[in-house]
Amino acid sequence: MKKLFKQKLKIVFFIVCAIIFLFFIYAIYIPKSPSDSPLVVYTIQKGMNSKSIAFDLESQGIINNSLFFRAYVIIFGQWPSLQAGSYDVSPSMSISSIVKKFVSGDVKKIYITIIEGWNLQDISEYFEKEKLYLKTDFLDLTNPSTSSGQGKDWSQDIDFLKDKPKNLTLEGYIFPDTYQIAFGLTLDKLLETILDNFDKKLTQELRKEISLQKKSIFQIITMASIIEKEVILLEDKKIVAGILWKRINAGIPLQVDATINYITGKNDPGVSIKDTTIDSPYNTYKYYGLPKGPISNPGMDSILAAIYPTKTDYWYYLSADDTGKTIFSKTLDEHNIAVTKYLRN
């Protein structure tokens, strides 16, 4: 009788274990909501343990039971491998799928696009509009001289910034491109990514050429930032670069409208006489040579134009209209005729 009872007890125990096992498998591999559910962003903070993560997922309605989540990551030894970051998850995902995502570090990605010719102010407004970063945070972190105390001297660790005056911002060095970044990436890390991209674009061959010309990277980027705002087409950029470098060598003021617009914050195709008298180191009507620093963040075409200008007999140019057409002149008389023809009609 006792033997029969033990056998029955074993059978019951086996059945119970089988039921628990099947229920565990069901809970692990079957999502809370089999139908499509909207994705939500869940963030694992650094230092969070599996208990906190499991509780969060259950409280947010993403999984049914935190106990099964914890059991799964412990049984399969996954809990040390859960990576911090922000993830797209939903109740339509099983616990095993969610854990797999957390272990692989498949964080949520977003894209940001910095347009050629934008200045730091433009970029900061874009970031704030897209709810990525606060405008003030970006402007502070790119300005080593900010009064907020949040500024950073990036030139300490980055070679191509060594010849940039330490008190100037990163204007000119925020390379225009589309960047794929992790959701929630810190502003510090984003700037590191952007500057690393700039570092790769400015090849050793280009740096050698700049050195052979006895120019600095800072001078090239400053010139490129002007060209970016003044001209659209690559061949025209190279001609304009040749004109501007020639004016500098001849001791003639650059008289570039884009530098005045940088001072005033306007975007006037033709600046006023009053504005050209503003006392600013960026005023190329008032002061000879390049402005104090870059006035925009130039793209690769403008940088190449600044390094490899086209030599011509031209001394003057103007942008005729929004089509990108540039009119070049050899003499002041020719230039004045072009101004009358294209800008005063």
From TrEMBL:
Topology of the protein relative to the lipid bilayer: Single-pass membrane protein
Subcellular location: Cell membrane
Keywords in alphabetical order: Cell membrane, Cell wall biogenesis/degradation, Lyase, Membrane, Transmembrane, Transmembrane helix
GO terms under biological process: cell wall organization; peptidoglycan biosynthetic process
Transmembrane segments: 12-30
GO terms under cellular component: plasma membrane
Site (Important for catalytic activity): E230
Gene Ontology MF: a single term: lytic endotransglycosylase activity
Record bears the keyword Iron: no
The EC number(s) this enzyme carries: 4.2.2.29
Catalysed reactions, as listed in the record: a peptidoglycan chain = a peptidoglycan chain with N-acetyl-1,6-anhydromuramyl-[peptide] at the reducing end + a peptidoglycan chain with N-acetylglucosamine at the non-reducing end
Recorded family membership: Belongs to the transglycosylase MltG family.
Task of the protein: Functions as a peptidoglycan terminase that cleaves nascent peptidoglycan strands endolytically to terminate their elongation.
NCBIfam families in UniProt: endolytic transglycosylase MltG (TIGR00247)
Protein name: Endolytic murein transglycosylase
Gene responsible for this protein: mltG
